[in-house]
């Protein structure tokens, strides 16, 4: 199919937007592709290309929407169903992913590649649900761990020489069961079983390496096998070889980091995590579009896990970390339903933006997330939005009662909203009077919902690059879904609202472009409200 077709044009637009790291352009290209499905069938190869691109660059909301639209249009390709389930897992919506994968496995022939991939992903869904629950004493979560091990083992035992990815996940989970003291009926001695599998895996991988057949998947798996056997120096060598392979994309490397942090429970500040995790992070931060988002698993065990901001600033106080955790209470995921995030917002005391709003707690987000302004289309309308404060209670929801003010995406890209009931669980954020100094040393931090999923703290590589109000440019990592997140200075005062990232022109008349994220200075939002409502803030 030529580029002149609606699907070819959408694919070309997607390539261009991904190259430019243009979040809005990626969403527009995805919608263009979906729009073409109303007129004709999409060739299977092109659908796979679009899904692979979105997955590889971690645009999981768009991946979900495109895969869902293909399924609604009658697509029969098992890969489309699998990619839909992948997106749902990444967005934290495990039940529909598990149901989809079970149905897919039941329809595919034994030994087929897609069945192998689907079983591995089913194991991932159960694994992630166990990790997220962080409650090994719960009967349901123990069942999730057993189901994850069983899914991975089924495929590994079918072909121990080639299905090492499944085998190494079984190894990691058996080691986790031993640490969490979870009894698995099929594995009365899980650590010993893990070691036996790990030796088998390494033997198979080393044989392939000798014949130059080892893939980047093999290298990552070998690193984990070495970790299970206590051979940490070898694990580091395998990881270095893994990240050097150009075939390993950001999705895979970020997944390996997540595995080490969430399943193996490695800590970047203590061995062996102090050696292994930076190898992956260096590759992520050095790549076009690379980023690291510190999520719940990085912070769950102790406050001390957040007490080092990874940059040149060294250690920070426990009070600083506790303030960060308090700020998280006022950050909201915004979507069409509870489990599906389209963006982020945060609560502010209305009177801190304009006196006419008094002490009422209002929600601030991007116009391209929620707005009635015609230039903000296809943003959510206020009446369609569901708001969840995950750090407070992920099961409790708010809705929007009224859109009070909005500025379109090409201006301040902000919308101020009144919710349908009071927010009493979060304290008002202090508002910064001015942006941080432009001395090349200041850092800014973002709390939001990357990829529309779980709440995350963006703390690493957090340098403020420049500002030319209303625009703030910073390296602080974000992902699609972070739009509308609060941007904080080092004192945890709000300095802006995050709204986009990509290859941006330098500010203040400086030539050239750079990879940066951009926020809007909160002071300009206050000025715009003063102009509209006629009272000085």
- Tally of separate helices: 18
Please tally the β strands and state the result: 14
Largest sheet: 8 strands, antiparallel
The helical percent reads 40-55%
Beta-strand content estimate: 5-15%
CATH topology of the domain at 298-537: Thrombin, subunit H
- Unreliable residue stretches: 286-292, 294-315
Q: Assembly type of the shown chains? A: single chain
Shape: globular
So what's the CATH class of the domain at 298-537? Answer: Mainly Beta
The CATH architecture classification of the domain at 298-537 is: Beta Barrel
- The rounded distance between the terminal residues' Cα atoms is 57 Å
Strand order of the largest sheet: 1-9-8-12-13-14-11-10
Mean pLDDT: 85
Radius of gyration based on Cα positions: 23 Å
Q: Helix/strand-derived class?
A: alpha+beta
Describe the structure in your own words.
By secondary structure, the protein is of the alpha+beta class. Among the domains are: 1-91; 298-537, Thrombin, subunit H (Beta Barrel). The chain is built from 18 helices and 14 strands. The radius of gyration is 23 Å and the shape is globular. The protein starts with 5 loop residues before the first helix and ends with a helix. Mean pLDDT is 85; it is low at 286-292 and 294-315.
